UniProtKB/TrEMBL annotation:
Name this polypeptide is given: Plastocyanin-like domain-containing protein
GO molecular function, one term: oxidoreductase activity
Protein origin, superkingdom: Eukaryota
PROSITE patterns according to UniProt: MULTICOPPER_OXIDASE1
Domain Plastocyanin-like: 72-185
Protein family according to the UniProt entry: Belongs to the multicopper oxidase family.
Signal sequence segment: 1-22
Pfam families: Cu-oxidase_3
Keywords in alphabetical order: Copper, Metal-binding, Oxidoreductase, Signal
């Protein structure tokens, strides 16, 4: 089957498919093998026009290590230039991927000039609630100029998730990306040739802080920010 439309892409997203070609013998004991994903790694960067390459399948879970450097930058995602809250200089942020059972280590370097936290949306965080990334509830804010390291496993979870800032409305301004946990035993493995990830969102020409102020102002009627 060839992917010929956005519809199929969305269907694939909902089926959290992969193009991994082998089903490994999995071990319950994680190894300490580490892999550092870099900005040069084409799989680490988000390019919706490039299909996935298969993620290596390991005999037992490994640790996958990522670095997200957060900073504001002048970008024009829809042709209109504005200040965008970027991760590793891009918007949407890099796609973070792992195989089922892997340990995921993510160093968040905050160069925003503002506080932040990053939440891993949909991940249960069993035993690691302190890495859930909810500002003021599960962790203190990450101060600008500092690094905070998240370290968790998705356990038995797999599928299409996303990550985003969990402080104020920062993700509206760009701090978000896809988080994909592959199942090497994907039941749809033979039903498609290629896989793409496409993120859809509202996008505003005004920064979210002023949008939120309008939304919260007395007498507000009709304009909505989620
Ligand atoms: Cu979320």
């Amino acid at each position: 089957m060839r992917i010929t439309s956005i519809f199929y892409v969305i269907v694939l997203l909902s089926l959290y498919s992969t193009i991994i070609n082998a089903a490994p013998a999995t071990s319950a004991v994680p190894t300490l093998e580490k892999r550092q994903e870099t900005e040069q790694d084409p799989d680490f960067n988000t390019n919706i026009f490039t299909s996935f390459k298969p993620l290596e399948v390991t005999a037992s879970p490994i640790t996958r290590e990522y670095t997200l450097t957060l900073a504001k930058a002048e970008l024009a995602p829809d042709g209109f230039s504005r200040q965008v809250w970027t991760s590793n200089g891009q918007y949407p942020g890099p796609m973070i991927r792992a195989n089922k059972g892997d340990q995921i280590v993510i160093h968040v370097q905050n160069n925003l000039g503002d506080f932040t936290t990053i939440h891993w949306h949909g991940i249960f965080q069993r035993g690691t609630t302190f890495y859930d990334g909810v500002a003021g509830q599960t962790q203190c804010l990450i101060a600008t100029g500092t690094t905070f390291t998240y370290n968790f496993t998705a356990g038995e979870q797999y599928g299409t998730y996303w990550w985003h800032s969990h402080f104020r409305s920062q993700y509206v301004d760009g701090l978000r990306g896809a988080l994909i946990i592959h199942d090497p035993k994907d039941p749809y493995l033979n039903d498609y040739d290629e896989e793409f990830v496409m993120t859809l969102s509202d996008w505003h020409h005004e920064e979210s802080e002023s949008l939120v102020n309008k939304r919260m102002a007395k007498g507000y009627d009709g304009f909505n920010v989620n």
